[in-house]
Specification:
Layout lengths: L8 E5 L5 H6 L1 H10 L2 E5 L12 E4 L22 H17 L3 E4 L1 H9 L3 E3 L2 H4 L19 E7 L4 H6 L3 E6 L4 E4 L5 E6 L4 E5 L6 E4 L9 H16 L1
Parallel strand pairs: 1-2, 1-3, 3-4, 4-11
Antiparallel strand pairs: 5-8, 6-7, 6-9, 9-10, 10-11
Helix pairs in contact: 2-7
Length: about 240
């Protein structure tokens, strides 16, 4: 389960060590390895999952249980409460330690909820687009990837890492962050106004992205990992 020897060790949180689950995580592990890091898989029964690592990666998957943000289930598709509890524990630990963290798709959503945010349970049903905004398809028919542009805030760490204010990203999600507390900075939005990236200015490096850079062949994907691993090396 180790990657490139000598690079920063990065914990990759999986819901189990089932071979099928681990196989689905390969694009995330390869993303870390391409950047020069060493992925270390951790699961709910891993003892001291953050011991000896310099960063954490939270990946995609099920919807966050809505009771975590004070709502009932209206439009969730899949929920894994055990995984929610496990990742909440990891998030509390990394914030306390100021450990570099990157969170992808579900990862950004559970990170946001752990920080006090709420979610749109289904974009199509719950989001009203302003008349002058461009409509964006965030997940294609039959749950396929789509692509759309995002605008990155000029004063954000994400802008510094990527070096551009507008990029095209891939997209595969039916939920999204509704709002964030003051401690969270919105770093990017899609053209319909939905939150696409968040960061925590008071932490060393905590970045959540709604798209999937681990499988998106765009220069921004490598730059995000480079910025994350640089923070891991400095930890």
């Amino acid at each position: 389960m180790d990657g490139t020897r000598g690079g920063p060790r990065v914990a990759v949180a999986l819901k189990s060590d089932d071979p099928n689950i681990m196989a689905k995580a390969d694009p995330y592990l390869d993303w870390i390895r391409r950047g020069g890091g060493e992925p270390v898989i951790v699961v709910p029964d891993t003892r001291r999952p953050l011991a000896g690592v310099k960063g954490l990666l939270l990946i995609g998957g099920e919807d966050v249980a809505p009771e975590r943000y004070g709502e009932v289930d209206r439009h969730c598709e899949r929920i894994n409460r055990e995984r929610d509890a496990y990742e909440f524990t990891l998030i509390r630990s990394v914030l306390r330690r100021d450990l570099p963290t990157i969170a992808v798709c579900r990862g950004i959503q559970i990170l946001a909820v752990a920080l006090g945010s709420t979610l749109y349970q289904d974009i199509r049903r719950e989001v009203t687009i302003e008349s002058n905004a461009k409509r964006v398809v965030h997940r294609g028919a039959r749950q396929t990837d789509t692509a759309h542009r995002i605008r990155i805030e000029k004063d954000s760490a994400l802008a510094d890492v990527i070096g551009r204010r507008t990029i095209t990203v891939n997209s595969h999600h039916h939920q999204a962050i509704r709002d964030v507390p003051r401690s969270v900075r919105v770093a990017a939005r899609s053209e319909d106004g939905l939150i696409e990236a968040i960061e925590l200015p008071r932490q060393r490096f905590v970045l959540g992205v709604q798209w999937h850079p681990e499988r998106w062949p765009h220069p921004s994907s490598a730059r995000i990992m480079k910025g994350f691993l640089a923070a891991c090396r400095d930890y």
